[in-house]
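Query form — protein Tripartite tricarboxylate transporter family receptor

QUESTION: What is the three-dimensional structure of this chain?
INPUT:
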Amino acid sequence: MTVKSRAAAAALTLVFAALAGAAQAAYPEQAIKIVVPFTPGGATDAVARLLANRLSGKLGQAVIVENRPGASTVIGAEAAARAQPDGYTLMLSGSTTYTVLPALKAGLPYDPLRSYEHIAIVAMAPVVLLAKNGLPAGTVQEAAALARQRGAQGELMYGTFGAGSAPHLAGEMFAEAAGAKMMPVPYKGSAQLVTAMIGGEVDLGVDTVSSAAPQARAGKVRALAVTGERRMPQLPDVPTFAEAGMPGVSFVGWYGLVAPARTPAPVVQTLSRAVAEIMEDPQVRKSVADLALDPVYLPGQAFQAQIAKELRTFTDVAARAGITLD
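ANSWER: The structure tokens for Tripartite tricarboxylate transporter family receptor are given below.
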């Protein structure tokens, strides 16, 4: 190659590099889609739509939410993992997708750490231990003592959302901390669970704070303790498990935004900066808190660390409790 041709090749390389840089700097150039692996109307959907609205304003492009429910979030999670890694398909889902299912179910079509670029965790979702009215246990410690008194046959029953659900894992953490064996009873959701507790079908229940707080304030059930580092504004008189002497009951759900693996780093950085700014907005934080969630911003590295930690914890809890999902 002559000096002249080498110079021409070098010039072309610089042109292509400049064009590539300009293309990345122009992101986004079209609408962005956020996959939500749940039906419309729930907390995950609400958080996604709040983010979509604010991201649209930050990035200058439409951001739409696409609900892809089914197979305990696997359908939407797989679709997001297999999407083109260009920053135009994202996913907002809860910890069920990222840690609970991977800890309990083999052969998932995605890996929570390797299938995605982790943008941010934006909200934490504590759960609450409930007692039916009339149960002779006014505190979480009294409930633990009652569970031990009922013997090793699991006579004290607690309601969950089914095997391997967040309430099931939290309930097993409580049973471990109490040194007792309890019997989980599956229900289809919060409404059915509370109805069962009012009717005396189960003694205890584990539910999300957002669903349970109105029922507790109305006196239909009693709230004994919440997970998380601090009390929830919706239940200000209810202690945390740590305050009640059971720090091991630490299950807290959360919501995280991801892109498919191999999405270009500048695109991920653009999204991360935008989300960080959004989560600093007092109005956004209030909107998240109004959903009985704790607004946060945990960037990609902290997001990955959260996944790795919970995978270890939930795998161990499930193994000791004999929880498996087919």
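ADDITIONAL NOTE: The radius of gyration is 23 Å.
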